[in-house]
Amino acid sequence: MTEYWVSQGKKWCDLCKIFISNNPSSIKNHELGTRHKEAVTKRLSNMREEKVAKDKEKKETARVLTQIEESQETPTDPRFMFWIARTRTWYGNVLDR
Ligand SMILES: [Zn+2]
Known about the structure:
Distance between the termini: 54 Å
Number of helices: 5
Keywords: Metal-binding, Nucleus, Zinc, Zinc-finger
Subcellular location: Nucleus
Bound molecules: zinc ion
GO biological process, one term: mRNA splicing, via spliceosome
Number of strands: 2
Pfam families: zf-U1
GO molecular function: RNA binding; zinc ion binding
Strand order of the largest sheet: 1-2
């Protein structure tokens, strides 16, 4: 029962890393506040940067794969061919673009 009352009293904002009072007007106030808005903006831009970095990494892998496959010296080792096929599956969406 104790936990119930604690959670009723406080609400954790993961973006701002602070507790706020768990009632509609406090939450609304907090979400309209400068600190929270800045935290939201920061979080969104971090997410965008991560996505860009991941896309870049995928494209680089795709490029290397294509290079290997188009190369005249493509190894015929079955294990290596399996690795290529598996990696192609992982990066499928990027390669299809
Ligand atoms: Zn917040």
